[in-house]
Task: structure prediction
Amino acid sequence: MQMYGDHHFPGKLFIVEGIDGSGKSTQLSLLRQWLRREGYMVFFSEWNSSPLVKETTRNGKKKQMLTPTTFSLIHATDLADRIERHIIPPLKAGAIVLADRYLYTAFARDGARGVSPSWVRELYRFAVRPTLAFYFRVPLDVAMKRILGARAGLKYYEAGMDLELSDDVEESFKIFQGMIRERYEQMVEEFGLTVIDATRSIEQQQNEMRLIVERELKDVPKDPAHNFEFEGD
Amino acid sequence: MDEDVERHKIEYYGEGLPGVDLGELHGRLIAIEGPDGVGRSTQVSLLKPWLESNGHAVLDTGMTRSALAGKGVKQAKEGLTLGPISLTLFYATDFADRLENEMIPALRAGFIVLTDRYIYSLIARAIVRGSNPDWIKSVYGLALKPDAVFYMRAGVADLIPRVLGSPTGFDYWESGMDMHLGQDLFDSFVEYQTRMLTVFDSMTEEYGFEIVDATQSPEAIYRTLQHRIGRILRGMS
Result:
């Protein structure tokens, strides 16, 4: 078993991070469309998507039986499964792997929950270092305006209710997101995150992202079978 | 609070768990470790009634039985669907759940926690499968140091008749078949258990294992364990 760290595979790994409502998922899916149009092999990996671990996670969340430590470990298990299954093989095959949230989400959330930051960083040593990690920086109130009201209901852990910050779900969510935002800000320098000003227009952000990503694509192979992709393929 | 209880110190291997006051843990934590087929569960089943008959409350626990992850781990093993890092971390999740939700509450209530295996088997399995030893040890820095770890030690040759005596015979995981070490269960078992023993032996000093010669009869092992556990319990009246 390997500690992947800096990888030497032909593919590239681009990831997006940011608090809820920062617009990172929108940006990533736009980037994906562009990369596919350009003829690259693109593989998309979502946070919390490993089928086997998902059931345990869902069950633990539903019954509210997760502690900060088990919350941290079950998400590490999930990411390990994603890395072994969905990230390493495509990187070896020369694909561009896009991940919506990566280990910085874990560092931010787990840290906010009181788990030791050095322990979590050690825990995730198995993870591949991303080629680029975009951080969508947005003021808390802007992000909250974007999502609150737009979504049906906040979930218990999502709102950080386990931290007993407030009895009001929405209030707890805001405080928790604020704590996570602080953690992200501290990580910008520590991990060399690429900061995107997420208060600008969607188009401006996407253009900047494409310019930055393009610089990393020089040696990336294109899909030999690719000729033209129809919209919505 | 009586003097002996106050003197009883419990600590973590590493940075431990958030939100647990170690000063509240008045029980004792005893781990029985050793390879598959060495007779750990036999000893636990003898020790529990003995301790209870002496007036101690006992929680006996073992691996992959947690409410949170026990089922998932079992499915993962049956379906062989997880990679080595994921399986290692799934075990760690399962362990942490049992530590926080079973062992620590019992220790808080003053129980003797008798655990059939602890982190050492999990660490050894991971190392044998190629994990970086520093990494896996630091992951288990969340664990409490037991008051005693009894390492029931026997050579691979001693394990074979015991495994053959069990109704299931050689087991896929106990033989490390996921590692493709041999042609069949027997070859693989010998190679896998040999590697496991080497790792266990190498951890003896670092983790302060008390070695119990498990080639003796179960009765002789039981007497040895009774004697040594008696020492730990002195402060617990």
Remarks:
- Residues 79 and 155 of chain B are 31 Å apart (CA to CA).
